[in-house]
Amino acid sequence: MSPANTFVIVGGGLAAGKAAEELRAHGHDGPLLLIGDERERPYIRPPLSKGYLLGKEDRESIHVHPEGWYREHGVDLLLGTSVTSVDGQAKEVTLDDGRRVPYAKLLLATGSSPRRLSVPGADLDNVLYLRRVGDSERLKSAFTEGARIVVVGGGWIGLETAAAARTAGAEVTVLEHAELPLLRVLGREAAEVFAGLHRDHGVDLRPHAEIQRVTGTGGRVDGVVLADGSHLPADAVVVGVGITPNVRLAEEAGLEVRNGIVTDEHLRTSVADIHAAGDVANAYHPRLGRHLRVEHWANALHQPRTAALSMLGKDAVYDRLPYFYTDQYDLGMEYTGYAEPGGYDRVVFRGAPDERRFIAFWMSGNRVVAGMSVNVWDVIDTIRSLIESGAETDDAVLSDPAVPLESLLPRV
Ligand SMILES: Cc1cc2nc3c(=O)[nH]c(=O)nc-3n(C[C@H](O)[C@H](O)[C@H](O)COP(=O)(O)OP(=O)(O)OC[C@H]3O[C@@H](n4cnc5c(N)ncnc54)[C@H](O)[C@@H]3O)c2cc1C
Ligand SMILES: NC(=O)c1ccc[n+]([C@@H]2O[C@H](COP(=O)([O-])OP(=O)(O)OC[C@H]3O[C@@H](n4cnc5c(N)ncnc54)[C@H](O)[C@@H]3O)[C@@H](O)[C@H]2O)c1
Questions:
Q1: Ligand 1 touching residue 48 (CB < 6 A)
Q2: Which of 224, 229, 249, 356 makes a 20 to 30 Å CA pair with 265?
Q3: How far apart are CA 212 and CA 219, in angstroms?
Q4: ipTM
Q5: Contact between residue 57 and residue 343 where contact means Cβ atoms under 8 Å apart
Q6: 16 close to ligand 1 (CB < 6 Angstrom)
């Protein structure tokens, strides 16, 4: 039996590791248990499709905390262990070895899992996914000079792995079933920049592609067949067709689940003393006036502070604007804000999209709702302030590089 004031964190990713840190930083001095089903202590995933995959970053650099940190801070790490159920009435979780652990407060930071490809042949060897550090290592060994790599999905995983594979000298085809990669998240104007980037680096980018089946010899993939009948030879197939939040525990425990675990702005779920953060949380965002589930690193980095404070009974609200970034070849990008299709009426550019050095602003009327900087640095905080200020501006000023962005902020 654990003492009555035990706080339990379920999940072993960035949100879980940061939550342990924030709970200690903000005064939880009782027992603290972090239970994760991976054997690795909490680590960040962005390098798995970038520096780690390219061999530029080592394994030590990806962890949220150094090895000794958990012991030094009195955090019990239970790795390689799954939580199989949550009982919100009895306030206890059950582990995969049958043990029950009572909690005073519980944080669900169970993240998400890759959607699987559901066509014949999808279970052949060398049909690869990318979520965990071992997956990245498998991709790395498949990305060799001249290897034929077919990537299914032109989202973030698809494009970042395509860039890594091309950098390693592989022949790369990207199959995207929409008209452009990243179309839904960036809209046409910015998505075209990424399509051009990959084509310029020799990727065979195929929009409107419908994969029909994966073919193999001796249990190992040797190609894919598309709906138009064409056959593409492949030494490996990388699948990046999106993720689904890991909500089973929450669902079975009777928590409100709708596109993730529903929380309020304090990251409290519908059941008392259970909180959620990171990829799995569909949290009410007071600034945007709606629930939002964000599948990005910065959200898993920052939400745990709010969750920890609210687990400790302190008042805290999560209202940071979404932020994400990518690195592909020599392109570095940062994005902040929220611009869903229909939530903006035009995109204004400052700089030259065809030179891949610019800032893009998503506009709703005279207000900026999201901004993206491509190979332009140290502007994203100003863009965030501009969005948060709600200041009105006009396209001529926004698109003029001679006008400092700071001058568009309201004077205080
Ligand atoms: C390859 C890759 C590259 C990325 N690059 C970027 C990037 O460049 N920029 C960006 O903004 N975002 C990026 N992301 C997204 C970002 O990594 C995620 O948003 C982030 O990992 C979410 O963290 P999390 O802790 O909420 O969930 P996760 O990282 O998914 O961690 C959840 C953990 O909980 C474990 N778990 C689940 N259920 C249980 C259970 N019942 N019991 C015990 N443990 C359980 C899971 O196995 C997992 O270890 C990338 C993601 C991937 C996969
Ligand atoms: N830089 C970053 O922010 C970054 C990098 C890597 C991963 N991630 C996160 O990891 C998660 C997974 O990334 P992802 O790229 O798998 O998901 P995604 O949702 O970003 O993209 C999936 C893409 O696959 C396409 N698609 C879906 N089914 C298809 C099919 N059958 N055939 C062809 N195309 C298909 C979709 O149209 C979409 O373009 C996301 O949450 C993402 O935000 C983020």
A1: yes
A2: 249
A3: 18
A4: 0.99
A5: no
A6: yes
15 in contact with ligand 1, CB cutoff 6 A: yes
Task: Kindly list the distances between the CA atom of residue 45 and the CA atoms of 70, 157, 228, 295, 301, in Å, as whole numbers in the listed order.
Answer: 20, 11, 35, 12, 12
Question: How far is the C-alpha of 97 from the C-alpha of 294, rounded, in Å?
Answer: 32
Residue ID of nearest Cα to ligand 1 atom 19: 296
Of the candidates 100, 119, 122, the residue with the CA atom closest to the CA atom of residue 2: 100
Residues 6+ apart with CB under 8 A from 245: 110, 111, 112, 259, 260, 261, 279, 280, 282, 293
Smallest CA separation from ligand 1 atom 37, residue: 110
Query: pLDDT by residue (tens digit) across 9-62?
Result: 999 999 999 999 999 999 999 999 999 999 999 999 999 999 999 999 999 999
- E strand or H helix at 399: none
- Letter for the amino acid at 232? L
* Of 116, 327, 112, nearest in space to 237 by CA: 116
Instruction: Report how far residue 335's alpha carbon sits from residue 93's, in angstroms, rounded to the nearest whole number.
Output: 38
Amino acid at 130: L
Residue of the CA atom closest to atom 5 of ligand 2: 156
Interacting residues of 50 by C-beta distance below 8 A, sequence separation 6+ = 57, 160, 164, 327
> pLDDT tens, 83-139?
999 999 999 999 999 999 999 999 999 999 999 999 999 999 999 999 999 999 999
Contact 368, 384 (CB under 8 A): no
Residues contacting 336, CB < 8 A, separation 6+: 321, 322, 323, 370, 371, 372, 380, 383, 384, 387
Helix axes 156-167, 183-200, angle to 10 degrees: 10
